[in-house]
Task: structure prediction
Amino acid sequence: MSAKLTLSLDKKVIEQAKIYAKEKHVSLSFLVENYLQKIVSEYQPKAEEENSIVEELGGIVKLSTTFDYRADYANYLTKKHE
Result:
C-alpha cells in the first residue's frame, strides 16, 4: 500500500538526487523508499525493560552471601502478626 509523504529538503540536494535517479533509471520515490527500508531493517528498538525502575535499581543493595532472606522474611511476618 502506498502513501504520500511530504519532505522539506535543501534544493541542491533535491536537484542532485533527481539527476542521480534519472541516471539510474529509477524514481526519486524509489530511492527514498529503499533508503528508509535499509534504515528500518537495521533498526533494533530498545527493550522496554531496559528503562524500567526495576532494572535501574537492580544491584543497588549489597547483601552478605550468608544472608537468608527467607528467615528474615519469616521473622518480619512473625513480628508483624504478634
User: Anything to note?
Assistant: The chain has a mean pLDDT of 87. The two ends are 68 Å apart (CA to CA).
